[in-house]
Design a protein that fits this description.
The structure is a single chain. With 390 residues, this protein is of the alpha/beta class. It has helices at 4-10, 37-44, 59-71, 83-94, 109-121, 134-140, 163-172, 185-188, 223-238, 243-253, 256-275, 294-300, 315-325, 377-389, and strands at residues 76-80, 100-104, 125-129, 145-151, 176-180, 198-202, 216-220, 280-284, 307-312, 330-331, 341-343, 368-371. The protein has two domains: 4-253, Type I PLP-dependent aspartate aminotransferase-like (Major domain) (Aspartate Aminotransferase, domain 2); 257-389, Alpha-Beta Complex (Aspartate Aminotransferase, domain 1), CATH 3.90.1150. It is built from 14 helices and twelve strands. Bound molecules: pyridoxal-5'-phosphate (PLP). Residues 82-84, 87, 108, 110, 151, 155, 180, 182, 202, 204, 214, 216, 334 line the site of pyridoxal-5'-phosphate.
């Protein structure tokens, strides 16, 4: 198999671009014309994989899906309008009333809301466990559990969950494992190779890399499941990606490896700087040798990514002063962009978590999350230093 950077640039495109164009066109069309009724019958019954309607399929989307499937070592992929469209569709596609889903205690805020607020309305139960503790996972499993869902590294406390061990336990009990691989990107981690059944991404983040697209994607090893997800859920819920966004994501993918290498290089320097700073209480970054799950990260990832969370001495007031004093780093949600972005998860992306439960979930009101960008590392560090002086 060719290397990651080669696949990120070429996978799926050979001989597929019309008029010998180097880059794929954007098929900006809602519908496709049938040659005659016989052709329509063949396409509608999946005897032919020609196109019908962009909510079901489109050549620009198909190229993006095929490329993502190759990068994640899956058999197929489904593109969605957003990461949340991918996550909610996958979760709903694998559960029915009276089933239970187990999720890790820290999750992106909207994923937490889907599990704790939407699923119970359809009589689907959930259990929250610390999945870094395998005993806790085993104790939570009963006959009703059908899905285990987690992010690794998790948002925002960077917990690392042992994908291989969780998948082995799940497989022996017929439970599906779904991993949100947004923080690592397919460059640093491939959960399907470690035994997971489905991988989801907010493509809005590193896959895009430029902060100009909202998109999502789900990848699986089982093509029948991909077909079921696409035509039973994506198509029916209707959260389809636009061809223009698929085209921008294909463009972003070409530099994914290059960007991830630089993101990580900068992040390691920033993490070391923070760790040694007298005004910082603690730093959460899987690449630090004293990080609690550093060894598992080393084993299952090819790199540690570029998201760091940390505590400034002095609690919430100091954290607010620090964030408000930054000049280069910008206060914003999202991550994985060229720009360094900073935020306070408890006040912004994880606002939906009940306040009284923050500590239980490993979050504090003063936790700062930084998505280390691609600016010169010395400039990022100088900015952090001047803000810490405030
Ligand atoms: C880990 C993770 N998963 C999913 C999402 C949701 O993605 P989107 O905003 O593309 O719907 C986010 C958004 O920040 C995220 O951080």
């Amino acid at each position: 198999m060719t290397g990651f950077d080669t696949r990120a640039i070429h996978a799926g495109s050979k001989g597929n671009n019309p008029s010998n164009s180097l880059n794929p066109p954007i098929f900006q069309t809602s519908t496709f014309v049938f040659n005659n009724i016989d052709h329509a019958n063949k396409v509608m019954s999946f005897e032919s994989d020609d196109y019908v309607y962009t909510r079901g399929n489109n050549p620009t989307l198909r190229l993006f899906e095929n490329r993502m499937a190759e990068l994640e070592h899956g058999a197929g992929a489904v593109a969605f309008a957003s990461g949340m469209a991918a996550i909610s569709s996958v979760i709903f596609s694998l559960l029915k009333p009276a089933d239970t889903i187990i999720v890790h205690k820290t999750l992106y805020g909207s994923s937490y809301s889907v599990v704790t607020e939407l699923l119970p309305k359809y009589n689907v139960n959930y259990k929250i466990a610390d999945l870094t503790n395998i005993d806790e996972l085993e104790n939570a499993i009963d006959e009703s559990v059908k899905v285990i869902y987690f992010e690794t590294p998790s948002n925002p406390d960077l917990s690392i969950i042992d994908i291989k061990t969780v998948s082995e336990i799940a497989k022996s009990k017929g439970i599906k494992v779904v991993v949100d691989n947004t923080f690592a990107s397919p460059y640093f981690q491939n959960p399907l190779l470690l035994g997971a059944d489905v991988v989801v991404h907010s493509a809005t983040k590193y896959i895009c890399g430029h902060g100009d697209v909202v998109g999502g994607v789900a990848i699986a090893k089982d093509l029948d499941y991909i077909h079921h997800l696409k035509f039973g859920y994506m198509c029916e819920f209707g959260g389809v990606m636009s061809p223009f966004n698929a085209w921008l994501l294909l463009r972003g993918l070409k530099t994914l490896g290059l960007r991830m290498r630089q993101h990580e290089k900068n992040a390691i320097e920033v993490a070391e700087f923070l760790k040694n700073h007298s005004r910082i209480d603690s730093v959460m970054y899987p690449g630090l040798s004293d990080f609690k799950e550093h060894n598992i990260a080393k084993e299952q990832m090819n790199g540690f990514g570029a998201i760091i969370s940390f505590e400034v001495k002095g609690g919430l007031d100091s954290a607010i002063k620090f964030v408000d004093s930054l000049k280069l780093a910008q206060l914003a949600v999202s991550l994985g962009d060229c720009e360094t972005l900073v935020q306070l998860p408890a006040a912004i992306t994880h606002r939906g978590y009940p306040r009284e439960k923050l500590a239980e979930f490993g979050l504090t009101e003063s936790m700062v999350r930084i998505s280390v960008g691609l600016e010169d590392s010395k400039d990022i560090i100088e900015d952090l230093e001047q803000a810490l002086k405030q």
